[in-house]
Amino acid sequence: MLEGYRIEGSRAADIAASVESGVRTGGLGPGQPLPSVRELALDLGVNANTVAAAYRSLRDRGVIETAGRRGSRVRERPASTPREAIRPEVPEDCVDVSTGNPDTALLPDLHDALASAAANAARHSVRYGDPAVSEPFARAARRQLDRDGVPDGPLAVTSGALDAIERVLTAQLRPGDAVAVEDPGWGSLLDLIPALGLRAVPVAVDDEGPLPDEAARALSDGARALVVTARAQNPTGAAVGARRAARLREVLAAHPAALLVEDDHGHGIVAEPLNSLAGHTDRWALVRSTAKAYGPDLRLAVLTGDELTLDRVRGRQLLGPGWVSRLLQDAVLHLWETGAVDTAAVARSYTRRREALVRALEERGVRAHGRSGMNVWVPVRDETGAVARLLQSGWAVAPGARFRLASPPGVRLTVSPLTAAGAEEVGDAVAAALRPSAARRYD
What we know:
With about 450 residues, this protein is of the alpha/beta class.
């Protein structure tokens, strides 16, 4: 049996909860073997089928994994320990460039938008059974998608990008299916996939997004879905250019049964055009969140896709939250119609800061990536050491472990808190933190 932690329970749900509690508190460490089904059943005095059901539940939620004759063990990074927890403690005197948050100075004042939404609600109360998406909001969202060349399709509104992606994946996939994901990529997505009982297959990226040969390999090896960030990729800032998009469309056309999920969370904060891959497989979805342009607490994203996928998403949504508040929909519509956010100016602001940081780093012999959005990715040899040394010099950066599967180490810096002068300062700090290898240019 296990040393130092005792699994308890008489029902499958209780046993699973006990294992998950051990993972969460550290009593069961990453990679730690678990007792066999028969052994644990004997110890707890329950039927072996009860333990088997508990293990199956834990496996489906990404807490444990089964490796044939080697038995079951805690996943190296179980869903119970989210990647967001991989962060340094930030002293009060540090500049925090680790969060991934937008610059609050670039977010709109929501007072007028919310007042307008409240006035609409006073005139037309929403009732059970009303459409989940307001017609004016749907028309405005569709016009934006049309301008960017996104294929026609039904619309849904979800509570943010991750909510949309989860709903799309569960609508089309089953536990055990493989999902091809960018590596490095969005940490929350890398947590979500095992939590759904799915397997993440890493696809390497460069400044233009996923490498076509890597995506083709993953799909040929059985991945049933590919998730692509259109622009402002987190953490690298990659943006899919026209040539890369053409190559990726060819890859997708060779795998028409694959599900494409396209994340365009950078809409409203980037200057780079959208080179969408949507419509080149039978099953596809594209999601646009308002979080980066209007603030993380405005929990709304527009989702479109093929008829079957959206029909399943909307049907399942009706059995849960029902709909995303029409008050929020009306508030976002007001922001769109009044031009409350000068999206071109916002994009220029992030671009200036991002390019200033990349330039400052390269002038000091440090290779950095940041083609679009608000983040810059710096490959490093010693991730833990770089993070610690930067903390000592007054800068908190995000450890690359939050974003990686198989890709080499790195750190992510968010430019939102930076000025041009700040870019020079952090450039000095990063170069110093990487010495004696600072003079080496990383690929």
